[in-house]
Amino acid sequence: MTAPTQSDARPLPTGVPGLDEILAGGYAANRAHLVEGRPGSGKTTLGLQFLIAGVEQGETCLYITLSESKRELQSVAARHGWSLDGIEIFELVPPELSLDPRKQQTLVHSSDLELGETVSMAVAEIERVKPSRVVFDSLSEIRILSQGSLRYRRQVLALKSYFLTHDATVLMLDDLSSERDALNLHSISHGVIRLEQVVPTYGAERRRISVIKMRGTTFRGGHHDMIIQRGGVRIFPRLVAADHHASFAFEVLPSGIAELDHLLGGGLTRGTSTLVIGPSGSGKSTLALGYLQSALARNERALVISFDETRGILLERAKGVGFDLAPHIEEGRLQIAQIDPAVVTPGEFSDSVREAVEHRGAKVVVIDSLTGYLNAMPEQPFLVLQMHELLSYLNQQGVITILILAQHGMVGHMSSPVDLTYLSDTVVILRFFESDGRVRRALSVLKRRIGPHEDTIREFRIDSQGLRVGPPLERFRGVLTGVPSYEGERDSLLDPRAAGASGGR
Questions:
Q1: Shortest CA distance to 155 belongs to which of 134, 135, 140, 176?
Q2: What are phi and psi of 166, to 5 degrees?
Q3: What torsion, rounded to 10 degrees, do the Cα atoms 72, 74, 77, 83 define?
Q4: Is 381 exposed, middle or buried (0-12, 13-18, 19+ CB in 10 A)?
Q5: Measuring CA to CA, which of 15, 171, 278, 397 is 20 to 30 A from 295?
Q6: List of domains in the chain
Q7: Secondary structure (DSSP) of 311-364
Q8: 56-111 pLDDT, tens per residue?
């Protein structure tokens, strides 16, 4: 065996977006890695991307297939828009599995001979091609021919040693047809990557990847969401807020409405998150639009993530209260992302936010609303932890984050589908109240971590000319019960403007 060099086991690009970040640079060069997963989890696609990346760097690449034909591989590549030119594809059909009478043994059925012939053919092809990257697909056929765990382990170990002596970086694919044998392979593999496919009760299937083992590398552990789309596998590394820090000043973004800014101690502070909670129709989204419009008027970039309504409805609703967002979209200051929570995974959601912040320079992010997102993902028990990581990341980037959360019920006792108040730096509560036979809206700030805030209750009104906030209302009773009643003077309430009143979310 040749002595190791400085470049031995260096990180080798995987060709898969997001995977290099998880593996701290890529696969270890000149080592054998085990990629395991059930059929349909994306192993073949992952292997092809690895070889295509090698061809682009001028390397010699070999795909040894015992499970899929060359024709099938070319069909997979065509659906992704790839060309397999430059990749040697060797169809290795064990004698026992061949239907060609000339390749079948008619007198002696010896598993030793059949396994030996199969391995010999693979070794001969490697000697001929001398590849630097190899995908071996798959080990399940070797397991069948071995007819025993001990012999199977020895054979795979022999193959691994052979690959190492020939300076090849190898991906060995395994379909987990035997969990016990799969665990045996973990100890002899340099790295172990597992692909999983989860089918929820409702919605599209969810795929994820985890790195179980990678010797000599500080990889990013845990599950990472992934998708298979035209162009191949794309992975969304789990967001770790501690890895992302940026310098910024804790300045305040005013809304332009003096009473509202006074209530919030001057406005919203950069690097903080604000939770706006209240029943449906109380004006939560419209309140967020007020601060969004103020930021856009200052030529700042912003992102709106909409789970509950289409882009067209959002634009029309904003225009109905005096906010024309279309020019800001055309000039690139505003990005509206409409997301289907039944399809998008938490990792993909976080990645879209990171893209807007790091590459588009978004300084204000509005998430409207968390309620639909949470309701559509009942099988994600750790979603609150993911939101904690996302909010921490946005705070460290100096972003003003506004979260909309609808409470269950319209009046009376109300509850939230999840408690995010402890994650938020500022909490604004909206309520309906009745006065003189009319339904009105009340606004109050329950919490603000940075700086003082007003502890009064003010009337909040929405009409076609925008937002209005009235003076403090001193004679309220039962606000926190969900059914507040106003017993003060009629002169303290806001009158409708000539253009008429408008509803809000």
A1: 140
A2: -105, 15
A3: 170
A4: exposed
A5: 278
A6: 11-238 (3.40.50.300), 243-492 (3.40.50.300)
A7: HHHHHHHHHHTT---HHHHHTTSEEEEE--TTT--HHHHHHHHHHHHHTS-EEE
A8: 999 999 999 988 888 999 999 999 999 999 999 998 865 444 445 444 433 333 44
